[in-house]
Amino acid sequence: RKKVGVLVSGRGSNLQALLDACADPAFPAEIALVISNVPGVLALERAAAARVATAVIPHRDYPTREAFDAAMDRVLRAAGVEIVCLAGFMRLLSSDFVAGWRGAMLNIHPSLLPLFKGLHTHRQALEAGVKLHGCTVHLVTPDLDDGPILVQAAVPVRDDDDECCLAARVLEQEHRAYPFALRLLAEGRVTVDGNRARIRE
Ligand code: GAR
């Protein structure tokens, strides 16, 4: 089983979906470590409840982004992590860190990329008036919310939706898409050709 490190900053519902998937011994990955840049968040409690090692690395303790990322990198490598999953991790990553995990770091983003990068994606979708919205799991490259797409899931936008109920509808799909994408990567079925990720059957 591939060893996974999950980076979190908050609620950790996507972490929970990954923990639940990894609880099946037949799943090709296991979570070795959860790192949070914020102390006291629910994600850390979820990891502890699943008997997964945790580390808190507060970004404010480091003089630069590079120093913070290097600290995370050391902890991930020391734990033997082979794949990094960003799960609601709300910090930009430096290019060195991203380069060090090229082809081995996944992010989940709550929109159908390349639409609606950045924050408040559900508000962005409502303001744009799209009728389909969703989530994307992609390999991380140096640009924010960019990189080869492994999995997307779409949901309808309903006329009476507000940000909250649209977010909830998307989140349900996130919890299915992320374990599925991690499985594909952990099984070594992903090859990258430019912007495109191809998945072997
Ligand atoms: C999720 O909706 C995730 O897609 C999003 O933050 C939420 C975290 O929830 N991520 C981003 O916006 C990254 N740019 P969770 O902590 O319950 O998984």
Shape: globular
The chain-level mean pLDDT equals 98
| Distance between the amino and carboxyl termini | 19 Å
So how many helices? 6
Can you write the helix and strand succession as a string?
EHEHEHEHEHEEHEE
Class by helix and strand content?
alpha/beta
Bound molecules: glycinamide ribonucleotide
List keywords for this structure.
single chain; about 200 residues; alpha/beta; 7-stranded mixed sheet; two-stranded antiparallel sheet; about 35% helix; binds glycinamide ribonucleotide
Would you mind describing this structure in some detail?
With 201 residues, the protein is of the alpha/beta class. The chain is 35% helix and 26% strand. It contains 6 helices and 9 strands, in the order E-H-E-H-E-H-E-H-E-H-E-E-H-E-E. The strands form 2 sheets. The protein has a 7-stranded mixed sheet with strand order 3-2-1-4-5-6-7, with helices on both faces. The chain has a two-stranded antiparallel sheet with strand order 8-9. Strand 2, helix 2 and strand 3 form a beta-alpha-beta unit. Helix 1 packs parallel to helix 6 (163-186). The radius of gyration is 16 Å and the shape is globular. The mean pLDDT is 98. Residues 10-14, 87-88, 108-110, 171, 174 line the site of glycinamide ribonucleotide.
Concise summary:
With 201 residues, the protein is α/β, with parallel strands linked by helices.
Sequence-ordered SSE layout with sheet pairings:
Elements: E1 2-8, H1 13-22, E2 29-36, H2 42-49, E3 53-56, H3 65-78, E4 83-86, H4 95-100, E5 105-109, H5 121-128, E6 132-139, E7 149-156, H6 163-186, E8 190-193, E9 196-199
Parallel strand pairs: 1-2, 1-4, 2-3, 4-5
Antiparallel strand pairs: 5-6, 6-7, 8-9
Helix pairs in contact: 1-6
Glycinamide ribonucleotide binds near residues 14, 109 and 110.
